[in-house]
Amino acid sequence: MTDGPGTAGAGLRLARQARGFSQQQLAGMAGISRQAVSAVESGHSDPSLRVALALGQALGMSVEELFGPGEPAALVAAISVAGMAGQGARERPAVEHAAGERVMLAPVGDRLVALPLRGDTGAGLGFLPAGGFAVRDAGTGNAGTGNGDGAEAGAKAGAEASAAPAEITVRPIGPPRPTLLVAGCDPALPLLATPLSLLDPPVAFAWWPCGSGEALRLARAGLVHAAGVHTQAGSGRSGTGPVIPDGAQVVGFTAWREGLVIAPRLRATVTGLDAIARHRLRLVNREPGAEARHLLDRERIRLNLEPGDLIGYGTQAAGHLQVASAVAAGLADAGVASEPAARAYGLAFVPLARERFDLVIPAEHTASREAQALLKVLTSPWLLAQLASIPGYDNATCGERFTAPAAARSAGAPGAASAHE
């Protein structure tokens, strides 16, 4: 009935997880023991005809579909987050998916969302598992573009134009499984994967690292289960908070200090952004829409500095750890990032603001299994202990529920400041 050891088990496990069933739930539906399901999935035994028929009926599949030789997966349509350019083509060019490009797939509502596994998005300390491959669209010569009619049309729309979600064609490697998809800049977000995997049934985790502005655009488009948003004390930007989707739920995750991360040799020289400009030191900046870039610009304006006064102002690192890594590698002398990132790389740090990092869950996803799983694991002792173990993090608000207006208030003093893109 199988074409090799473990083949039946792999197909059964993928089909069960794709439907969100635990082994116990599937066993009850099929009228067999959980041990029997476990034995088949682990490859320790092949199912009898009776068991195979019962499992196929419970999963809505034929025995051949469930246990037969593997066939190429049918093509599916997915929305690519890489196509959600919010700053226009002048800052974010059109994104094309090359044929065969690995993507992660996450069901979000009634759509499949694809995350390109390229660069920092596709590698932690090693390559991440893919859910499928982008397929070159017939007749166009492209696998899908990120800005509709391309960079030229995007440029005409202006720097503030938002691109429509880009649909691409994907050949799945296996059935997409329930996956919590979160967009945001906090490098602690991948810690959610472990407690999510221990739920029964488990939920997978996918992270799209980006600034607060892009995360909120994806949330408003319904393409992520949660978006990370900064709430900052002392920003002086009251009344300019983020456009949080109507009815969204806001829950706390972490808090930290944000400021200048500096090469250790310059610890005594650099006491602020003015010293960086005065000594003509090289800066590494963040992408437009990132809170770190907003913080840098507010400090620059306060000190009456122009972008041209800062060498490297036009650079764009993709996250806190990337900024710290560039400074540690000697590619830059300083940048704006979180204190945990600075301490992880042994860099000097000059604080500029205190921030809280909240998760915004769009109303259409608050009742979803993925969002409910997120709310459950945010208060898990394991996650709280892991956050507390990272120097510079404060887990006091992790799992705390806020009303949407709370995201526009200061982490330290209500009404003093606002979260923003």
Measured as a percent range, the helix fraction is 25-40%
Structural classification: alpha/beta
CATH classification, class level of the largest domain: Alpha Beta
Tell me the major beta sheet: 8 strands, mixed
Structure report:
The protein has 421 residues and is an alpha/beta fold. It folds into three domains: 61 residues, lambda repressor-like DNA-binding domains (434 Repressor (Amino-terminal Domain)); 105 residues, no CATH class; 244 residues, D-Maltodextrin-Binding Protein, domain 2 (3-Layer(aba) Sandwich). The chain contains 15 helices and 13 strands. The strands form two sheets. Strands 6, 7, 8, 9, 10, 11, 12 and 13 form an eight-stranded mixed β-sheet that branches. It has a five-stranded mixed beta barrel with strand order 1-3-2-4-5. A hairpin with a 2-residue loop joins β2 and β3. α2 crosses α3 and α2 packs across α4.
Quickly list its features.
434 Repressor (Amino-terminal Domain), alpha/beta, elongated, D-Maltodextrin-Binding Protein, domain 2, five-stranded mixed barrel, 15 helices, disordered N terminus, 13 strands, 421 residues, 3 domains, disordered C terminus, eight-stranded mixed beta sheet
Question: Outline of this structure?
Answer:
By secondary structure, this protein is α/β, with parallel strands linked by helices. It is 29% helix and 20% strand.
